[in-house]
Structure prediction request, 608 residues.
Amino acid sequence: MSAEPSGAVAGESSATRPQIRVQTVQLLRTGGALLIGAAVVSSVVAACLWRFGFSPWLPAGWLGGMGLLVFASLAGGTVERVVSDAREHPWWWVGGGLLLCVPAFVRAANASLAFTHPDEFALAWFSRQYSFMTTNFFGPIPPEPVWTFQSPSLYFVVQKLVLAVIGTAPLDVKLSTLPWVLLTAGALFLAARALFGTLVAVLSVAVYAFLAPSVYAESFGIPNTASTALLLVFFLCALYNGRKPTLGSAVATGVACSLCYLAYTSSYAAAPLLVLFAALACLDVPAGRVVKSLAIALGTIVIVLLPFMVGAAKSSDFFLQRISQTVPMAGKLLGRDVAQEEVSRSRSELAASWAANCAYLWRNDVGGTAGFEFGRRALLDPVSVGFLVAGVLLAPAMARRRRELVLVALFVAVNIVSLGFANPPPHITRLANLFPFVAMVIALAIAGALRLRSSPTWLRGGLAVALLAVVIGCNLGHLHAAQARDTDSGREDYEDIKVAVFLKEQFPGKEIRVAAFGGFHLEYTLRLFLPRSTIVTNYHDQLLQAFDRRADCVYVILFPEEFDEKFRRADPEGELITNVSRKYGIFVTRPRPRGVSGAPSLSRVAGS
Prediction:
């Protein structure tokens, strides 16, 4: 009785195998054709850009090529694991979606104007200022070298779309990076689930949501948040591709890797990691298959980046520009004028720089600079350090495939090593790529409580919840302590925003002249919040030499203690305002309207 069905099933199975092979071959052919089509489209776009210059049709063509790559990846079956899991567990869509919103909510709640960086508003002004119908999408932003450095356009395009929806108030600028936080949380969940299972994935997102350095760094509206998200997506794709190299997974890995180079330099570790991950995959997968997969990924990278390479060749090398500024050795190699003494010192301090980047995890007064001070405190509080160490020890026992832990180790090592070449001290935003993995390892220690088989289930579950609560509480306390000690000028009376809103309310439409130097960040903050005002920035002495008492304008003076009186002497009938800002003097060439007072309160600034 039982043999007949068994034979039927066997016969059916053997009959369907050729059909499955045919379908697989068809999918591969379809994916290959789409990949070739994307290569042709990218080449045409790059050739037109080189020969005729920028046209608003070219980005549309490039997006079409990206669409072909997406379909090529889907045809190759790159998302079949995720889709099948989602079908088996439909609660993913509801519970998982709510879970991923927690990190974004925590960062939005901590996006205070008491802790603000001037670069946020300069970058937001670039996003708002440039129309990508006329500004070269494949060139640098800003198009002219008026800022500290130039970057690819991806971050600015996304921010422009977000700001068009939520607005451009000061807090809106800080919230414009929340889509990248959501992407980071989603990629972290899938990566942790692939490595350690669903429980660790849930705990990883929960820890990441409240991890003090991550909340601090991602509460600023800067491109590093985008780099963290894209590099983690690349890690996820490389993980899937290493387990089962297919055309689709290789294309997805290549796309993710290339996008890392359209964000910020902190995600430029992607290409070296791609090669290292491929070498590691050879231990489990035939070498020929890995080489083919790597070749497809590298080809995809060229397809995606080719128009941007042409844009860099025709304007400025915005891919390597920031590296040449922050890495003395690379700067000399890339043609930047760097003193040999600085290069030699950088080489001699490499070991100390690597050690400092590692020690910054647990030691105070090691890192913190450039307006991202984090109170000069260690990145992790002592309790989180203990959980991190415990997680490292438990990882081999809890990993689904122990060899894949080498991927995590490589990821951390490459990031630490690459950061060692940059000018010290350690920078919290440069280390942001590691924070999701720190959260994952801490989650392993919490999940380890559930491995105490001798205890009742309710006791193990309660212990895990208690440990998670302890980690969250310690991180929130650490974050607030760091904010309280933060020495950055961006506290409740943040000077740039106060001055911008004061001028907007009291002197609308007046010409504003900033006495500082070209590219000074205040100019861009003023341009963002006073789009109808004419704003000029020049050195103090040059503005004083060209001073015109008849001009109806407002001077904003950097270094007021040195230059306030010079402007007053240039126009004794003008008025010097000193009760608005400690950082800037404000000089008006004509008497103020009645009723002018100090800068508005922070709540009014936030809603302006």
Summary: The longest strand covers residues 553-558. DSSP finds 27 helices and five strands in the chain. Confidence is low (pLDDT under 50) at residues 1-12, 602-608.
